Amino acid sequence: MKKEKVIIILLLIITVFSCKSRENEKEVVFFNKSKEVVQSKFPFPIGYVNDYEDVFTKEEEEKLEKLIDDYEKESTNVIAVVTISSYDPYKNIEDYSLALANDWGVGRKDKNNGLTIVINKLKREIRISTGLGTEKTLTDEICKKVIDSIIIPEFKNENYYEGVEKGIRSLIKQW
Predict the structure, then answer these.
(1) Fewer Cβ atoms within 10 Å of its own Cβ: the N or the C terminal residue of the chain?
(2) Each residue of 51-92: pLDDT tens digit?
(3) Which residues of the chain have pLDDT under 50?
């Protein structure tokens, strides 16, 4: 009987500490949160900003995370920013971006209101992919105009954070 009590107490302690360690984790609203993405061709999403190419400083990532998180809370629309050094095994950034957005399930499932910005700094490419619910408002033409007139001019001056931040703000206004 004494051993059972000790085991129960240990289990309770472990449960309490494991719950406390998750208190500070931010909930990112990607609807495909299956842990089975181990077989995926894509990395597991770490937040709204997934800087796998180290384009942004820590402070810049935090500012973008806050901008996107605040907008998601206000609108339920979800934005993911992803920097990559390669889109293998895909032939182009368009295919990679769409497949990544679908794999991660960016947006809310019932609204399909996601927007994914994929940047490959090494190849000097950028793509904005929209969910079906998003593309009704943010058409390919609007996204291309934001890329061409706002983001790329900043990127040409190596102002990657400014380009993405200004681009997101423009998209938010039009969304």
Answers:
(1) N
(2) 999 999 999 999 999 999 999 999 999 999 999 999 989 999
(3) 10-12, 15-27, 29, 33-38
C-alpha to C-alpha distances, 155 to 82, 111, 116, 159, 169, nearest whole angstrom: 15, 32, 18, 5, 16
CATH 3.40.50.1820 fits 47-174, yes or no: no
Kindly tell me the burial class for residue 8, based on how many C-beta atoms sit within 10 Å of its own C-beta (0-12, 13-18, 19 or more).
exposed
Distances (CA, A) of 15 to 10, 67, 153: 9, 33, 51
pTM of model > 0.85:
no
The two three-digit tokens of residue 108, written as one number: 């809310």
Q: Are strands 114-120 and 125-130 parallel, antiparallel or unpaired?
A: antiparallel
With tokens 């990127």, the residue in question is 155
Say how far residue 23 (Cα) sits from the centre of its chain. 21
Cα–Cα distance, 74 to 54 (Å, whole number): 29
- The residues, ordered by sequence, that sit 6+ positions from 163 with a Cβ below 8 Å of its Cβ are 150, 151, 152, 153, 154, 155
